[in-house]
Amino acid sequence: MRLDGWKLIAAHFGRERSTVIRWATERGMPVHRIPGPGRSSVYALTEELDAWLDADRAVGDGPDDDSSVAPVGGPPAGGLREEGWLARLRSRRVLAFVVPGAIAVASLSAWAINRDPLRQTDMSLPANSEAAGLYLEARSDWAARQPESIASAIAKLQQVVMLEPGFAPAYAALADSYVLAREFGSLEDVDAFARAQAAADAALRIDPENPDALRSAGFIEYWWRGDRAASARLFRAPIAANPQAAQTRFWFGNVLVDNGDFAAGMAELEHALLLEPASVPLQVDTAWARWSMGDEARGLADLERLRDANPSLATIHDYLAVIYLARGDMAAFVAEATALAEVNGRPSDGDQAIRLQAALAADAASVAPLVLADLEADLASGRRSSLTWPTFVATAARDRAAVVRLLDTGKARGERWGSSGLMRHVRESWARDTEITLLLDDLVADSLVTG
Asked: 124 with 151: CB under 8 angstroms?
């Protein structure tokens, strides 16, 4: 049976109108929009609503009451969490694991099955003038890449989707903002990625070809779910539609570099730089890519120059901490870790930085083993699953037994690792160790360019 309008849809569930609007925009409840100017009319089919409700309940997270609904701006239910900067450091460049538990997001597969045949056509700006102004302000805040600016972008975009629930670019911008909140804000990976997925799915239900939403979905597939092939497909669609989209080429370049497709990744990053040469975040990630490829001197010099000019940009301190650890410069490593904690303002990061400072003061040789011990404890407790960063740290600590154990674990799991810049350093550090070299060979990811 067809239900016309939010009032009848709400009555079907015995809920308030605002509740079912929230479920539709944030939880993937299937509604259909009739194209037209302004706020389009909606209708729903009872059989689709009932099937959606049954599916949500089947995974243990059905909307039986309002409190169970995780909004696009709220934390998801369940999932693993890695606390502190020691766990997060390099997390963006380390392929994440598929998080178990019931997470309140609609999957891309669900979007592909249930997408609206009568979707509203995208517009360049929302019809509502207030929403249009907020959207432009939010995009500017997002570009600033500061903790407070990312939080501001999210708050403004949440207002936009309330004012214009059919405006797909606002949901895509929310997805972009949650992605950056991992690095420049206070969100942990599980929270940020779950919210980003919910926002990207909401955008794609309205506009299945929205390039920004496809870009965010590609980012999520690689860095959170670890599905390299799906990520590449999702990135290539918006690039084909708009070859001059600098942000899409930027993020795809990061994916390719991490996967070990160095030449193709650098080509994407350099193309993005031609389009946006003044972008500091793009310059930073290009410098990191150079280091990852093996041009270590230039990558380090560029990052140090960028740090001196932009001391409040978190990713610079993140990358430099890794590079200094690889070089064995523990004083510089601790200094960058401390700076990263100060920029992020997270209490847990500050506590860990204090521990590192104490270890450095006692004996510089104890710093890397301290970091490794923390990571090993996280692996044992289940708070961490990814093995690439621990393997890198074990190499910095010159703990061969730990390196072999971690590589053996990855091989036993049948994993294929990204983090190719880190693994390049591990390989070079143990170049004469046949056992480690062969284990690394078993973990190399398939190329996204030729494979």
From this structure: no
Strands 32-33 and 42-45: antiparallel
The answer to whether the CB of 320 falls within 8 A of the CB of 336 is yes
Residues 6 or more apart whose CB falls under 8 angstroms from that of 266 comprise 253, 257, 286, 289, 290, 293
* Reported confidence tier of residue 55, pLDDT bands at 50, 70, 90: low
pLDDT above 70 covers a percentage of the chain that reads 80
Ranking 54-68, 76-90, 168-182, 330-344 by mean pLDDT, the lowest is: 76-90
Give the CA diameter of the chain.
73
CA-to-CA distance for 68 and 24, rounded, in angstroms? 14
Which class for 30: exposed (0-12), middle (13-18), buried (19 or more C-beta within 10 A)? buried
Question: Which residues lie across from 417 on neighbouring strands?
Answer: 444
Report the C-alpha gap between 433 and 1 in whole angstroms. 68
d(CA 191, CA 80): 10
Tokens of 358: 């104490």
What is the spatial distance between Cα 190 and Cα 223, in angstroms, rounded to a whole number? 11
pTM attached to this predicted model: 0.73
Nearest to 80 by CA among 101, 95, 61, 59: 101
Over the stretch 90-148, which tens digit does the pLDDT of each residue have? 444 443 333 333 333 333 333 333 333 333 334 478 888 898 999 999 988 888 888 88
Q: For 264-314, how does the pLDDT look when each residue is reduced to its tens digit (9 = 90+)?
A: 999 999 999 999 999 999 999 999 999 999 999 999 999 999 999 999 998
- Asked whether 125 and 132 are in contact (CB, 8 A), the reply is yes
Ramachandran bin of 110, using left for φ above 0, alpha for ψ from -120 to 50, beta for the remaining angles: alpha
